[in-house]
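Dear colleague,

Thank you for sharing your sequence with our group. We've completed the structure prediction you requested, and as agreed, I am returning the results in plain text so they can be pasted directly into your records. Please verify that the sequence below matches your submission; if there's any discrepancy, let me know and we will rerun it promptly.
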Amino acid sequence: MEKKKVLSKKKEIKPRDVTICDATAQMLEKAKRDGVETVFDRAAGMRACPIGADSACCKHCSMGPCRMNARDPYAKVGVCGATIDTIMSRNFARMVASGSAAHTDHGMSMLNLFREVVKGNITDYEIKDPNKLKEVASSIGIEVEGREIHDIAMDLYEELERTYTQVEGEIPFAKRVPEKTLETWRKLGIVPRGAMREIMELMHRTHMGVDQDYENITTQINRTALADGWGGSMVATEISDILFGTPSPVSVEVNMGVLKEDHVNIIVHGHEPNLFESMLVSVNEPSLVDAAKKAGAAGINLVGMCCSGAEMMSRHGIPHAGNFMSTEAVLVTGAVDAMTVDVQCIKQGLAKVADCYGTHLITTNPRCHIEGAQHMELDEHNPSACTDGIVIKAISRFRNRTAEIEIPNIKNIGIHGFSHEYINYMLGGSFRASYTPLNDNIINGRIRGVAGVVGCTNPRVKQDWVHVELVKELIKKDVLVLQTGCSQIALAKAGLTTPEAAILAGPGLHEVCETVGMPPVLGLGSCVDNSRILIAASAMVREGGLGHSIAELPAAGAAPEWMSEKAISIGQYFVASGVYTVFGVTFPIVKETKFHKLLFEGLEEQGLGKWGFSADPYEMASMMIAHIDKKRQELGIDKARERILMDMADRQALKA
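Please find the predicted structure tokens below.
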């Protein structure tokens, strides 16, 4: 296919100014030579609206749009009389509703797949982790002793379905929430009922002329976000583990060097693991492998990107080509024969870039069609019809390649797949799996605290840089870092997900990592797998010694390069769970307003967490460490104590 020049006369970018990823920078240079426009070019040519960035405008009815003055936010009100606080809280609420809907819809898709597998209506997938099934069922009060797997699974499905459809009561996973945290939620009236109920009510409240009190809107914001974190997202993660296997540490290659010029290269990009699981079967189908070899290829190379890639990287060790901001750049290699996508974080710009290089861009989910892309819908009752067809198209493209191939010779190896279950085992051993060693080493000061650094990459900042610099600062100060999503890939490319990276950590964390044999940065999977961090935080509370609620833990969270509404929902469910959460890039609230004060101070006064903001990674690290130190002081563990690292004899002495 003849290349189409799509690079317009806009401000020319310098690759090294927009990314620290060497592979992406190399491909941006090639894109410039080829006359191909990418997201970085579009960002340079698109000035962000300052009023919109501050969420100081309202377009919820045709009397507007109404634009407020961020410099003097109380100088005027909207046509209907809405104040800046009402306008901002409505806008923020709708971001939470949209982000929650994305995770909830994904979780419901996984739950529906689970039901059909259990009923025997879908036979290409099966329950691969029956122990995880029993653990999840038991955690929400389902009897498992002496019962058949099928019966437990059906009970679990019926119970978890309430996560979405229930209109009264509390969602099932509320039973996992630490008692004091749950008590606070009940007092504030923010325990989620059912996700559909909460999202629907939040959208109704933010309609013109309904809820016009920013504090009351925030109550529903909290309830909806919690329905995401402790509902839709948690269901998606747990069901994925049950069906496809719970991750455990595996060494994986990351970056564009995982592409192979002499192979048929297929990239899977998106969020739903069933597409990737079926692709894994298809690329190993002997007849298709033989067809690839007859076309002159040495074999078929399956590679992941973004979040479904992070899941498969953690679960099966599938190589990963890069995070969100590299999804167009990887097509510029000319080596990608097919990129198949399902839902979430899929740029429409992929279609033009794929067309320039003759790459097949294939959508597979009824929720996501892209103009200019091919659509081959995945039917879970017969997934191979779709995935085999994708492989055949990729083989055809390989046979007829015309694009110039340039694959960056860059690969980074790291360890990924640290599920909550494995962390528990890693710290306590097979027979006494426990968070006690972690809690003890936080109490004695060897580990200062725990930070979750998660989220997207954003072209408004230099790709990966804020993630990497923030995490370097945190581990240097003895803070153990948990990672998910695109942030995890940024850190993997920087070499921070190997045990050897512990040399960059402070002396206490370094010694713990060296003793356990773990990296100072633990990759937990995709962005939906942030629920693993919630489960880990709850386990730390239950283990004892670090307070009685998540809000009392010496812990903090950050999304340094966030870009989507999902990120806002994730941030809000961490805040509502009790975690100090710092965002970078920008924040959609005007400072010094009442709504800003509520999110950044008032929620913490209610017994929850609070928001923070900084675009600078070093300031962000200082803010998080100061919060961790404050929590240590409140717990009375800020003073120097004898540092004892548990050895095997200590572990064996623990009570069973």
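Summary note from our side: Residues 84-119 form the longest helix (36 residues).

Kind regards,
the structure core
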